[in-house]
Specification:
With 467 residues, this protein is an all-alpha fold. It has 2 domains: 177 residues, no CATH class; 280 residues, no CATH class. 69% of the residues lie in helices and 0% in strands. It is globular.
Length: 467
């Protein structure tokens, strides 16, 4: 069930109507049933995996609470981590590793045939697996008391607004809101409606229209035109931003309408001037998760420069692999690690002028955006070979664009830039709500007109559903 579909609109009207009239206890029962119906609409069998992951961590949380012995507690945590990663690994990575292992053995003169299962990837499995597993880790660390209410825990894992594409919420935040009664306020509903409206605009107008410019270039075969590749990569940078930030805004908006506060997952990432700042603005819930549950346990930056660089490389490469079972994602993660390490080293060594343009902050932002787009080329490419061919075309086969219309690209992006200029100036996606009524009305009418008349109403899935 897609946020940008008529079926979800009907679903939301029914769910929200019931939510407004039910008391807190029955609200939670209803939201749990609605969340399972929402997720089961893709394939009811996926509910078995969702429930299994949640039940494992619920049981582990209770066992950890009853167990003072450190060794036994570590055993329970190991059960949670291994069970969750085994489920994720089998459904998401089995075919990838089996295929690559068979190819490696064949190259070494040991031909072997490993059966590929072609398992259907459950929607959002990476998101809810990380969320559920973080609960067990937090209980193990003593940062959280486990809940004994199974209904509330199942709702924490399956809460439909953010279930399939985040943000990845922590139990200390979301579960605490589930346990306590929520208040629906006029200001919360107003903010929620704006976030839903703006999220749909980002998805339906920005992202889905840009997809029509991006897909033909990446679907073609070599040789490539460097100008088309460059424009397609720029378009993809804003396509994936509109698609993913759009989903996160809708999720936050749905939550606000019900009195929930979901975390901000995007904070104008293309205003970042370096990779450290970028990852504080892009997919914030994942970057925080990787920091707290991978980078810090590995040792963080506490054991010298080389160990720090190793930890950064492992964390970001694993973060790339989290996105999908393909070498392009691994390469993208490794590239992000290289950027972070390079900028960190430059900063520690005084950052030479060549690495840090001195003509203004906006030039540094523009420079880093180019580096970000190299990463997006790796991310979007269908193979490492295609990525290499496209990079070669940008460097050595640059001619007038023949596939991507630069004027159409600018026309799609201009409304986004104008609204985000207001949001960036106010350092808040909700900044348009504080404009003067007349100006606000012009913004609303213009965005609504573009959304209805020029939006791509094809009910395209969100990009991050595949992760």
């Amino acid at each position: 069930m897609l946020f940008n579909s008529a079926a979800f609109a009907v679903f939301w009207v029914v769910v929200y109507g019931l939510y407004l009239v039910l008391p807190h206890r029955w609200q939670n029962w209803m939201l749990l049933a609605a969340s399972y119906a929402f997720y089961g609409a893709w394939d009811w069998r996926f509910l078995l995996l969702l429930s299994a992951s949640a039940l494992i961590d619920y049981a582990v949380g209770l066992a950890l609470d009853r167990t003072p012995d450190r060794r036994t507690r570590r055993l329970w945590l190991t059960i949670s981590v291994c069970a969750n990663l085994s489920i994720l690994g089998f459904f998401k990575y089995y075919d990838f590793f089996a295929g690559n292992l068979a190819a490696l053995l064949t190259t070494l003169g040991l031909p072997v045939s490993l059966r590929l299962l072609h398992v259907v990837l459950p929607v959002g499995i990476s998101f809810y697996t990380f969320q559920s597993m973080s609960y067990a880790i937090d209980v193990y660390r003593g940062e959280l008391k486990p809940t004994r209410n199974l209904r509330d825990f199942l709702l924490f894992v399956s809460f439909f607004p953010h279930l399939v594409a985040g943000p990845i919420m922590r139990a200390g935040s979301l579960l605490a809101q589930i346990v306590k009664p929520r208040r629906v306020t006029a200001s919360g509903v107003a903010e929620g409606c704006f976030l839903i409206f703006w999220g749909l605009f980002l998805k339906v107008y920005v992202a889905d229209n840009l997809a029509a410019l991006v897909n033909p270039v990446f679907a073609a075969s070599a040789p490539y035109n460097g100008a088309d590749v460059l424009l397609a990569v720029y378009a993809f940078a804003f396509q994936i931003y509109g698609d993913f930030a759009g989903y996160s805004n809708i999720a936050r908006g749905l939550g606000k309408c019900m009195g929930f506060e979901l975390m901000v997952n995007f904070s104008f990432p293309y205003t970042a001037a370096n990779p450290r700042e970028f990852w504080r603005r892009w997919h914030i819930s994942l970057s925080n998760w990787l920091r707290d549950y991978v980078y810090v346990p590995l040792g963080g930056s506490r054991r010298g420069a080389w160990i720090t660089y190793r930890n950064l490389a492992l964390t970001m490469t694993l973060g790339g692999l989290w996105h999908g079972a393909a070498w392009t994602f691994v390469a993208w993660g490794a590239y992000q690690a290289m950027l972070i390490i390079s900028f960190r080293t430059a900063r520690e060594n005084g950052e030479p002028a060549a690495a840090r343009p001195a003509v203004g902050a906006w030039l540094r932002v523009l420079f880093f955006f180019q580096l970000t787009c190299v990463g997006w080329l790796l991310f979007r490419a269908t193979s490492i070979a295609q990525a290499a061919q496209m990079l070669y075309a940008v460097a050595f086969a640059f001619g007038p664009p023949a596939v991507v219309d630069a004027r159409l690209l600018l026309a799609i992006l201009l409304p986004l830039f104008l609204v985000e200029w207001v949001q960036i100036a106010g350092d808040d996606v909700l900044a348009p709500l504080r404009l003067r009524p007349a100006i606000r009305a012009v913004v609303y009418v213009s965005v609504f007109y573009l959304l209805i008349v020029y939006g791509a109403h094809h009910h395209r899935e969100f990009i991050y559903f595949q992760f």
